[in-house]
Design a protein that fits this description.
Largest sheet: 6 strands, mixed
Radius of gyration: 25 Å
Strand content: 5-15%
Low-confidence stretches: 1-10, 428-448
CATH class of the domain at 81-294: Alpha Beta
Structural class: alpha/beta
Mean pLDDT: 89
Shape: globular
Helix content: 40-55%
Number of strands: 11
Order of helices and strands: HEHHEHEHHEHEHEEHHHHEHEEEHHH
């Protein structure tokens, strides 16, 4: 139970109807759940030799000397910078110049630089939706997208993860609106069915919003993201992303039609009521964009590292089948089991990120490995060795995700066997020539 001392600073309510009684109850429930520490925090801090698989610095640009030098020069050369909302910026400002460059990079009409990915998502949905516009959100979409939909007062119509058929049912029931997905989902590392989504949205008259936070910088010949890489820029209404991942900074981007984004600049509450991104940060983004576009080898190293680790973990028996990118989940199930997994990895110097409620569904907690291009082969080998060593101690065979993998492989084996049988029968010279006649019933009888 929660220690009453933890609530010592909370005013004692005069009755159960007191203003802060509900807060005190929620804090008590949180303490009961968390115990001495929150489930996402272990008791061991990463040391200098730790393998750090918790960073979203996918391209290894955090601390890059060229970027730091550009920011330092700008910071030292800036005098009396005006701190104000970006609504007061003119078209010749450094921010607008960067926004136009970013739009060209993305193949969009225009873009807006926001204070964070959260501000980009909240501000966008708050601006383009209203109480008459249903928003259809993938259940696994980023929390900021849900927050934006709620702040718009729009009817929320969730659909099952990556299930276009369920999305179609929802749209047919509630009418066209805004469909909101992530290009890459941050917990499982799977991609959205982007071609099916754009086809559906065009057919049903819906607008598609794609959050590319985990695909910008990592997908495309020059890091332009999944939508641009696949030639879908004109078929996606808006793209958003955080600049705190591959760009290793702090900010966010909304890209789309110029007239809509001009409206966004003066109507989005985060844009209006927060100070603009600082000048030295914009210079840093400019230099980072240079590197992301030019140094394609970083994307190659990222993909190579992710493929090697994913394949090795799969061979050890972990269910990493959802992962299609640099995000690799080890889904232990409940929070207690996930905490044990984290602790065993931490003790071996392998540090990932724990994801649990509300970032995951109940009993779908996991340790996420975020692979980067900067990981060395020996660090990947250490990670694989640690995961191999702890399999029995963590009860890998009893994880729900392991059992799901076994069921999926059993189905796949049956389907593969049936397909091979059908192919073999087709190649037989006597195929179809049986007691049922020249073409009747032979395949069906053999395949049963």
């Amino acid at each position: 139970m929660a220690d009453p001392a933890n609530l010592a600073l909370m005013p004692e309510p005069r009755s159960k109807g007191g203003a802060l009684y509900s807060l005190a109850e929620r804090i008590a429930r949180y303490r009961e759940r968390a115990g001495d520490a929150h489930p996402v925090i272990g008791s061991i801090a990463p040391g200098p030799d730790a393998v750090r698989l918790f960073s979203n610095d996918y391209l290894g640009l955090s601390g890059d000397a060229r970027i730091n030098a550009a920011k330092a020069e700008a910071l030292l050369g800036t005098a009396n910078e005006v701190l104000m909302s970006a609504v007061y910026l003119h078209d010749d400002s450094n921010q607008r110049r960067f926004e136009r460059r970013m739009a060209a990079f993305l193949g969009a009409e225009d873009s807006v630089l926001c204070q964070s990915g959260w501000c980009a998502n909240v501000g966008l949905l708050q601006t383009i939706a209203d109480q008459n516009t249903p928003i259809f959100l993938d259940l696994a979409a980023h929390a900021s997208l849900w927050e934006g939909a709620q702040s718009a007062g729009a009817p929320l119509r969730p659909f099952r993860h990556n299930n276009v058929n369920h999305l179609e049912e929802q749209v047919r029931r509630h009418g066209p609106g805004i469909v909101v997905v992530d290009a890459i989902y941050s917990t499982a590392g799977d991609l959205c069915p982007i071609f099916d989504l754009v086809d559906f949205c065009e057919r049903e008259g819906c607008a598609l919003v794609v959050d590319e936070s985990h695909s910008i910088g990592t997908f495309g010949a020059r890091g332009e993201g999944l939508v641009s890489m696949l030639g879908l820029t004109k078929r996606v209404a808006f793209r958003t992303f955080s600049l705190s991942k591959a760009f290793a900074g702090r900010g966010g981007i909304v890209a789309g039609a110029a007239d809509a984004l001009d409206f966004f600049r003066f109507e989005s509450r985060p844009a209006i009521f927060s100070s603009a991104v600082l000048a030295y940060e914009i210079v840093g983004f400019e230099r980072t964009l240079d590197i992301i576009q030019d140094e394609y080898w970083r994307r190659e190293a990222l993909q190579r590292n992710a493929d090697r680790l994913r394949t090795a973990l799969h061979d050890l028996g972990y269910n990493v089948s959802s992962s299609q990118c640099q995000i690799i989940p080890l889904e232990a199930g409940d929070e207690t089991r996930t905490g044990s997994l984290r602790d065993m990895l931490d003790r071996r110097g392998i540090f990932g990120s724990v994801f649990c409620m509300p970032a995951t569904l109940r009993n779908r907690a996991l340790v996420r490995f975020s692979v980067t291009s900067a990981l060395e082969p020996h660090e990947l080998q250490r990670t694989v060795a640690a995961c191999a060593e702890i399999r029995e101690a963590i009860g890998l065979a009893d994880w729900p995700s392991t059992k799901r993998r076994a069921r999926a492989e059993e189905r796949e084996d049956k389907e593969t066997a049936q397909t091979k049988l059908r192919q073999a029968l087709v190649l037989r010279p006597d195929f179809g020539r049986n007691a049922n006649g020249p073409s009747g019933g032979g395949l069906e009888r053999f395949a049963e």
